[in-house]
Write a structure and sequence with these properties.
- The protein is of the alpha/beta class.
- About 35% of the residues lie in helices and about 20% in strands.
- Strands 3-2-1-4-7 form a 5-stranded mixed β-sheet, with helices on both faces.
- The chain has 2 domains: about 130 residues, 2-Layer Sandwich (Nucleotidyltransferase, domain 5), CATH 3.30.420; about 170 residues, Nucleotidyltransferase, domain 5 (2-Layer Sandwich), CATH 3.30.420.
- It is built from 9 helices and 12 strands.
Length: about 325
């Protein structure tokens, strides 16, 4: 029986999660710490070390053969560094080297969190069985990843498929990334809520101004709330269609909190796709919701590490090495 495990890390601005993951994608041991995002670099690394130490205390740790990390980005897998927008203390932080040192020199693979989610959905989720896929996380930001020719395609930096920063409105609002009219600037949860408020939507008695509250209002028939989701869906459709046309894709999988709006998002998204995905080879593109949920980052980090280990054993350059 194959007994090797991967130690997986899912690093975000709110929490740092870890797990020992087996060859079937089951999470056998879990650990988690809050991310001290407003503190310095070493405080954040201390939380990572605490998660790793808790995993290492498990009797199963001796079966760990590699570490996979899915991190909020930008990441630079070729350099082994991370600079998450929502963790200001980490800029060019040498995470791969530090994790390798903390785990006694285990090989470490680093990918962006959108790529990790993609790896999970392709391995065990909604993109399983599809050789050419775009998987997206639509939440506080908009990220993504690609499967091409049946294989995860993280690219040399670990960020390939980062659809959130495709410009879909040439004269649109400035995006914090420095460009204009990015998918993220239109379709992320905070921007859906911002646009609804700017156009006259008002929250209920609870004062909830999140995208989830806007979705609830849209379901209840509020036209301003519905229009904000329709605009987000149009931006997503334009970005998805561009990516599908460029890479000849079969399926787009959408996860993250905004996807939880259900048909409030997906109905206008499918309608807008008919306007943008017009060439014959992308007209049959399937669009569906992600199914891996909160564990996608950990499962995907393990999948990415396993993919790289197999590639390395076959003489292919790994995405990242300690």
């Amino acid at each position: 029986m194959h007994t090797d495990l991967v130690a997986a890390l899912d690093i975000g601005g709110t929490k740092i999660a870890g797990a020992l993951v087996d060859g079937g994608g089951s999470l056998l041991v879990r650990a988690q710490r809050p991310t001290p995002a407003r503190e310095g670099a070493e405080a954040v690394m201390g939380a990572v070390n605490d998660v790793l130490a808790e995993l290492a205390a498990s009797p199963l740790w001796h079966r760990a053969r590699a570490v996979g990390i899915g991190s909020a980005g930008p990441v630079d897998a070729s350099a082994g560094t991370v600079s998450p927008v929502n963790v200001p203390g980490w800029r060019g932080f040498p995470l791969v080297d530090r994790v390798a040192a903390a785990t006694g020199g285990l090989p470490v693979t680093l990918v962006g969190d959108g790529v990790a989610m993609t790896a999970a959905e392709h391995w065990l989720g909604a993109a399983r069985g599809y050789d050419n896929a775009l998987c997206m996380v639509v939440s506080t930001g908009v990220g993504g990843g690609l499967v091409l020719g049946g294989k995860l395609h993280p690219g040399p930096s670990g960020n390939a498929g980062h659809i959130g920063h495709i410009s879909v409105d040439l004269d649109g609002d400035p995006c914090p990334c420095g460009a204009r009219g990015c998918v993220e600037r239109i379709a992320s949860g905070p921007n859906i809520a911002r646009r609804a408020l700017e156009n006259g939507w008002r929250p209920g008695a609870d004062g909830d101004t999140t995208a989830a509250a806007v979705a609830a209002a849209a379901r209840a028939g509020d036209p301003v709330a519905a229009a904000s989701f329709e605009r987000a869906a149009q931006a997503l459709a334009a970005g998805i269609a561009a990516t599908a046309t460029l890479a000849d894709l079969d399926i787009a999988v959408i996860g993250g909190g905004v996807a939880g709006a259900g048909e409030v998002l997906f109905a206008p998204l499918r309608a807008s796709l008919r306007d943008y995905a017009t060439l014959s080879f992308v007209q049959g593109l399937t669009v569906t919701s992600a199914v891996m949920g909160a564990d996608a980052g950990l499962v995907g980090a393990a999948a990415a590490a396993s993919t790289v280990r197999r590639a390395a054993s076959n003489g292919v350059r790994a995405v990242a090495a300690p």
